[in-house]
Amino acid sequence: MERETEGGCMIKVGVLALQGDFAEHIATLRSIGVETVEVRLPEQLVDLEGLIIPGGESTTIGKLATSYHLIEPLRRFSQDRPVWGTCAGAIFLSNDARRGQPLLNVMDITVERNAFGRQVDSFETELSIPVLENPDRPYRAIFIRAPIIESVGEGVEIIARLPIDSEDEDRIVAARQGHLLATSFHPELTGDDRFHRYFLGLAKG
Ligand code: GLN
Fold it and tell me: Does the Cβ of 87 fall within 6 Å of ligand 1?
């Protein structure tokens, strides 16, 4: 089954393919009938309805985007088309990662990289995410040397929080600013395509 927009054409979504786990995003998008493009050149952005920036290493993604002359084209794309950053991709979208590295500076969030420290480098947990289909079904989230979203600006909606049992509080792990989406975790690794479907909802307007 092909996923169609209201006008009847198939939706086309790019995945930035400079570094990181872009192949897993492409596989998930294809499994739900979306046409995908591996994006490495500015001209490949032209006819896309949305873009995913994958997890990986945000400094490397930023440096490669700079040398491939992608920073300005990605900023322009983000002005009016849906962009979703997962993990390193969320860092790259942010306004502030608290250190000098190339960022798109398009989303009004401040992130803290590697926020869970060495002992809990990677973990999986179930989150409650009310914006997804079947919101009563928990969403299994995989965190790998993940950032947290330390703070969000006005107009940024918090869509998922991770409870921290020992401290009786929580951390922001997913946020949306209009057509921009950032998640600390990796929905492309879980086999649960609800987050990708949610993003396609933004792409279809
Ligand atoms: N720790 C990485 C960074 O800071 C992100 C890890 C990931 O994308 N899984 O860029």
Answer: yes
Q: What percentage of the chain exceeds 70 in pLDDT?
A: 93
Tokens of 93: 């979208």
Report the amino acid identity of residue 141: A
| pLDDT beyond 90 at 1 | no
**Which residue, 46, 47, 65, is CA-closest to 106?**
65
pLDDT band at 119 (very low <50, low <70, confident <90, very high): low
Atom of ligand 1 nearest to the CA of 20: 8
Could you list the active site residues? 87, 186, 188
Q: Could you give the CA distance from residue 194 to residue 105 in angstroms, rounded to a whole number?
A: 27
State the burial class of residue 149 (Cβ atoms within 10 Å of its Cβ: 0-12, 13-18, 19+): buried
For residue 194, the SS3 value is: helix
Q: Domain 12-204: which topology? A: Rossmann fold (3.40.50)
Domain map of the chain by residue range? 12-204
Helix (H), strand (E) counts: the chain: 5, 12
Closest CA to 87 of 155, 31, 19, 33: 19
